[in-house]
Amino acid sequence: MLSAIDDAKSGRGLLVMLASEPGIGKTRIVQKLGAIAEKRDAQMLWRRCYEGEGAPP
């Protein structure tokens, strides 16, 4: 995933999707990646999926 930051800085932006079972640490990984991106003078945007009742699996 660190190479995605370098690629984006070189003008080759891309989408990275991180998915797995709940509670495995996805949010923590994204937070760490965001900190690394900031140190490399890059911007990272991220969103969470809706987790309420009736959400698709």
Using only CA atoms, what is the Rg? 13 Å
Mean pLDDT: 84
| Number of E-state strands | 0
Strand content: under 5%
Helix content, binned percent? 25-40%
Amino-to-carboxy terminus distance = 25 Å
Q: Low-confidence parts lasting 5 or more residues at pLDDT below 50?
A: none
Q: Pairing-aware structural class of the strands and helices?
A: mainly alpha
Q: Could you state the order of secondary-structure elements as H and E?
A: HH
Q: Describe the biggest sheet?
A: none
- The outline comes out as elongated
Task: Please give the count of helices.
Answer: 2
What does this structure look like?
With 57 residues, the protein is mainly alpha-helical. It has a domain at 2-39. It is built from two helices and no strands. It is elongated and about 40 Å long.
Spell out the key features of this protein.
57 residues, mainly alpha, 2 helices, elongated
Q: Can you give me a brief rundown of this structure?
A:
With 57 residues, the chain is an all-alpha fold.
How are the SSEs ordered, and which strands pair?
Layout (H helix, E strand, L loop, with lengths): L1 H8 L16 H14 L18
